[in-house]
Amino acid sequence: KFAEVTLAVFYHEKNANGELVGGPMYYIKNGLSKKWHFLAYLFAAFGVLTVFGTGNATQVNTITTAVNSALMNYHVISKDAIPTSNLIQGIIIAVLVALILLGGVKRIAQVTEKLVPFMALFYIVLAIGVILLNLNRIPSVFVSILEGAFRPSAVTGGIVGSMLMSVKKGVSRGIFSNESGLGSAPIAAAAAQTKEPVRQGLVSMTGTFIDTIVICTMTGFSIVLTGAYTQGLEGVAVTAYAFQSGLPFSAKVCEGILMLCLIFFAFTTILGWDYYSERCLEYLTGGRMKAVKVYRWLYILAVFIGPFLTVSAVWTIADIFNALMALPNLVAILALSGVVVAETRHYFKRLSEGSIRE
After folding, report:
1. Residues 57, 257: contact at Cβ < 8 Å?
2. pTM of the predicted model, to two decimals?
3. pLDDT averaged over consecutive 10-residue blocks of the chain (358 residues)?
């Protein structure tokens, strides 16, 4: 995350509207020779296609799954009513996304900057609650984790297969959580009004710590503490079970709280990924904003895809598109690692000399 964001700010440029733009396509174009420029177009193309994966369908599916689970627990709907519920939710989400996206980038920033800190803090408090109320089980959690790591055959029946599956799931979910190496975060970071690429890289890398080390670890502890992973559940239902079992509230209250958190998480992600995709399309089309406006409408309509896909299908699609985006970006980061090292040394040298302020 540090390397890609530093490169994004170092190689960013202004578009026809005077806006700062950057990301993998720009540091590939401006930092590497022409023979590597095809990677920039590949990344941009995959970034546009994520409308069907990480940025849209997966998030909408998460929202509808969470809402349907809560409504069924509240006995508002039955299992037979889920298709109708999905359609209604799809319409509502599409309308809300349209209202915000058609207001432009500034509207996106205004919405996300208010929702993201609140929902993250609220979720962390809930997860801490589960852990504190089940402190007596902490030793058994570490036993389960260590046993799963060093004796995987006892858990899944095969050492090599278990290790490969653990790596696959760990990498794919880690990337999905913090987007490090994926190339999406640098697109947003490149718009920062700063003359210090390294400073922006340092700020952005904290996202990896907060998202994955803090929030995901707390979620994992909650799931293992309550035995939610042994219930044969998938997706949102696993965390819902953990909160219901670990918090001193009724199942309906826990379900409702988690539903709200997930809605906020997923909805703001939908908005953010539209920005990434639009910047990728802008690069592909040479800055033709008409194409971007048409794409914006397609992005809104694509909201209706997510509710009708299975949980396993949306995660498979997300993993595929994440990998497609990451590959050209990681090649570029490795090729430009010398630039990152030189800029970092230069920044800290000036910082130690007092020529720049922290």
Report:
1. no
2. 0.84
3. 96 89 95 94 90 78 87 86 92 89 68 73 88 89 81 59 74 82 91 91 91 87 90 82 86 81 84 90 90 90 84 81 90 96 95 79
